[in-house]
Amino acid sequence: MITEIKPSESSNLRGLFKGFLEDLACFLYPPHCVLCRKPLPDGLRAACDECRDELFSNIKPSLPYCPVCRAFYPDIFDGCRTCAGRKSPGKLYALSEMTASMREYLHAYKYFGRVEISEQFAHKAFELYARAPFIKDIDVIIPVPLHPRKHHYRGYNQAELFAKHLSHLFDIPMNCTALKRKKNTKSQTYLNAIERYANIKGVFQISNNESIKNKRILLVDDIVTTGATLYECSKTLRRAGASQVISLTIGRPTVLGQ
Ligand SMILES: [Zn+2]
Ligand SMILES: [Zn+2]
Description:
Blueprint lengths: L6 H22 L20 H9 L7 E2 L4 E2 L19 E6 L2 H12 L4 H14 L3 H4 L3 E4 L4 H7 L3 H13 L8 E3 L11 H8 L3 E3 L9 E8 L4 H12 L4 E9 L6
Parallel strand pairs: 3-8, 4-7, 7-8
Antiparallel strand pairs: 1-2, 5-6
Helix pairs in contact: 4-7
Bound molecules: zinc ion (2 copies).
């Protein structure tokens, strides 16, 4: 006899199976710091206190960053003047260069469920930008959405978790339903800049223009690479009537010439 498994039972079974796999993984590969590889006896964290403190102490306040020409530019500009008229996402602040340590740490956040990392970076952003002039103008925080299928598969949207903590700390409302991803695109990871812009074009849509109209928006993502995703999201938000879109990410590429 074939027993039909109802959706709730199926997700319970999936949860049990996932728990079993996690226990097995812990037994075979005891938790260790992703940065110095020392064992972490007190459980599932990404890094030991020393490595985490060193990583965060290296994050300093910085000027807005342009992912197109990979340079900083003065805070008083709305966007990079060198790239005015090109497909640039507009004003963007990024907490840190993607050093080898940042890459390891964010990898643990994005792919291995170390979701506590989102709160740590939100606290750092608050420390750096709580008194910054741009933050006072923001009406709403919007995370870059994942396609629902990818969200379901991963179990969380790393940009949304970061945005949720920012919303709480800065006391600015978050809207994670207005901007939607209508197409599930292939991963941008192995694409060059031109391919990334083409791959992401027309992927986003607005579900409710009224919630966007005349709003000053802080668009949030975990990592910026070429700026293609932020450009496409900010274009979609502006077309729906947003009066300003400023972006904030955790990681960014190296500044050229440094
Ligand atoms: Zn360590
Ligand atoms: Zn530029």
